[in-house]
Amino acid sequence: MSRCARDSIPRRPPMLTRYRHLFLLPLLAVTTVALAVDVPANLPKRKAGLWEMQMGSAGGKPQMVKVCLDEASDRAMYEMGAKIGGSVCSKFSLSVNGNVVVADGVCSLPGPQGNIVMTSHSETRFTGDTAYQTQGTVKLDPPVNGNGEMSVSNGGHWVGQCTAGMKPGDMLLPDGRTMNFKDMGQQ
User: Fold this and answer.
1) What's the pLDDT tens digit per position in 12-33?
2) Domain presence at residue 145
3) pTM
4) From which domain of life does this come (predicted)?
């Protein structure tokens, strides 16, 4: 790609790009367990196999990833969200009512001119063990690059059996790379 063409591609503001993974905390597979607490046993479980998951939309275009899950990796995904949240969030509530999971959190993120308080609310509705849809809001105080409040959404659905060569925890990223989310915490 030429420099001129590359320079004409719209870019996210640097702060949003830098912290986009934190904006997804309330939506990371409905695992915004913000304090270092056990993941509730009654969280809905996803069917083992290959899932297509739409990740994020906090100020950017949603990305589709494919994830190979089994019972253990599904639980590990929930626990990873709990671990990430526990490192930056001071308040949290999580409730499960049948097929709906409601999460609320208050997190403090380092910014270029002091901390940014992120307050999040999300509701995830499961359709059996083969689909879910999350809607939420993220409020930033002070606003980042003029963004004080954003709507975020994600969702996922079961596609079928994991493809040949994939193991539980493998994610096929939009750029074609494969990585295992269980290895992310070890880097």
Assistant:
1) 444 444 444 444 444 343 333 3
2) yes
3) 0.74
4) Bacteria
Residues 17, 165: Cα–Cα separation, whole Å: 32
Strand-by-strand arrangement of the 63-69 sheet:
89-97, 100-111, 114-127, 131-144, 147-160, 49-55, 63-69, 170-172, 178-180
Q: Are β-strands 100-111 and 114-127 bridged in parallel, bridged antiparallel, or unpaired?
A: antiparallel
Which domain range does residue 108 map to? 12-186
Residue 91, in any domain of the structure = yes
Tokens of 130: 């083969």
Are the CB atoms for 30 and 153 separated by under 8 Å? Answer: no
Model confidence pLDDT, tens digit, residues 89-123: 888 777 789 999 888 889 888 887 889 999 999 99
Taken in order 126, 127, 132, 137, is the CA torsion positive or negative? negative
Residue 2 lies in a domain: no
Number of domains in the chain: 1
